[in-house]
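# nightly structure sweep
# worker-07 picked up a monomer target from the shared queue
# config: single-sequence mode, recycle default, output format = structure tokens
# input follows
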Amino acid sequence: MSKGRRYDDTKQKLNYKKVFAVIIAVIVFVMFIIIIKNLLTKGKDTGKISSQTYFTLYQDEKWGVINNLGETVITPSYQEMIIIPNNKKDVFLCVYDINYETGEYSTKALNSKDEEIFKEYEKVEALENYDENNNVWYEEELLRVQKDGKYGLINLSGEKVLNTEYDSIETLKGISNSILVQKEGKYGLVDSSGNFIIDGEYKEIKNLGKDYTEGYITVTQEGKYGIIGYTKKQILNNEYENIKQKYGTSLYVIQENGKEKVVNSEGVVVLEDGFDTVEQILESSGPGIIFKKNNKCGVMLEDGSILIEPKYEDLKEAKQSIFIAKKDGKYGIIDEDEATKIEFQYNSITYNKQANIYIAEDENYNSYIIDNDFNIKITGILSDLDTDKGYMRIRIDDEYKYYNFKFEEKNNTEILTSNTLFLSKKDGKFGYVDKKGEVVVDYIYDDGTEQNSCGYVAVKKDGLWGSLDNKGNVVIEPIYNLDNNLIIDFIGKWHLGEDINMNYYCEENKS
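# output follows
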């Protein structure tokens, strides 16, 4: 008799023990699936994780929401822009009934079913932040809520992070993972999980550098400055008139009796003479500073010796012993011996540490990509540099080319591995091919973009722009004049608005 069969071969009838065993196994399996499904869908109406992504829509002077397929999720009906803190979660924040005289307003949070969520709070708002270029961004996992006139924090699933007991809650501008909370005129600082980094006892809290890991400047109620690290360690006691937001190699710029001084982490004065102001603390070239004297920049080491005399209009450390300098209104590169590595002929020069390349730009916005030995390797217009994927996209002679950080030219099919369409040029016209190089869209366009994360491409013909889907089908014929747009991008029939800082899609500028 074969094992595992439902019938007894000798009697040709049901083997009831095995049947019951199978039935019980099936029931247990089904119950397991249901439990897992319930766990995965728990809280699905408040900030659920979805394969969809969401974007703000502007149409007929009203605001709504679309998804990555270009479908309308929230019909445009709001006077003020809808904020989407995390475009992978369906939490949309609306402002309405604004009284511009008193400054009063109402808010509501909606999900993708156009249902109001988090209704137990008087206000639900995003935590807005911005970088050094004034590009706006939001805390992706936190919302500020108000109840009985006090503020607290919840996550996008509605779970409480901080009790509603504070007079104000704001982001520390330019710094992630750093939320200022204020009660009775005293400030504290919490991280994105609601854990206190700095207790609520200070008059003011500021960032020390460009990242939360570099620590914070605190100001007591008496106006004395100190420094606390993000691990809660007191680095400098609160005993100074001021502390500058400069950081590097455990040196700090403090002010005593109206004069800037450089101290170490023990508070011992290291430098105090020979300069008017400190512009940068060296990070790679040894302990020291870039200083300014008589409005000119130079370099001084920790022992007070002058490495580079103050004679440059601007000076920044790029890497060890290498400096980007400005002279006679133009930028070049010098070493610590002031030997010129790159001539002073550019409008700007930046160093990308991750890619280990220099990027110089002239008055016509041409980019010059320079290697570690100061050789110009590529010239064109830099349109994209992705350090995560390790490539540069450069427009050369009206054609886009891709390079890795070894300056090896790559096909777009090697770089954009998740795409289904690839921009191609032939006889002065643009079309699209698939991964095998077979033509999907004929060469009929004057310009085009590569596929975006939503699968759409933008195409230009006779000076106007339209879009195609991920199979090369026309979504909307070229009808938009986007000459004023810095970035050309489409989701379905909607194109990115002129103000890229607001990051919304619309159907304006039709010709």
